[in-house]
Amino acid sequence: MADAHRLDCENEAADCRFIIQSENEAEAIELAKNHMRDDHGQEYTDDELREEHLQAV
Ligand SMILES: [Zn+2]
To answer: How far is the CA of 37 from the centre of ligand 1 (A)?
Structure first.
């Protein structure tokens, strides 16, 4: 059973309920990057997202 990669944006922005969950890490990072850029105007690198924002669940 693969771990899922999860980003709960409420941890980053208290007023955002966006949650990403995917078993595909690359996909989770891509979705997180797009969301952060489009909805929050913030650019994160793949490494920042992987190391600091995504949780394994
Ligand atoms: Zn958000």
So the answer is: 9
For the chain, domain boundaries: 5-56
How many A from CA of 1 to the centre of ligand 1?
Answer: 28
Q: Which amino acid, one-letter code, is at 54?
A: L
Q: Is the pTM of this model over 0.70?
A: yes
Q: Could you report the per-residue pLDDT of 4-32, keeping only the tens digit for each?
A: 999 999 877 778 999 999 999 999 999 99
Ranges of beta strands (E only) in the chain are: 5-8, 19-22, 55-56
Alpha helices (H) in 1-57, listed in sequence order: 25-40, 46-48
Neighbouring C-beta atoms of residue 21, cutoff 10 Å: 14
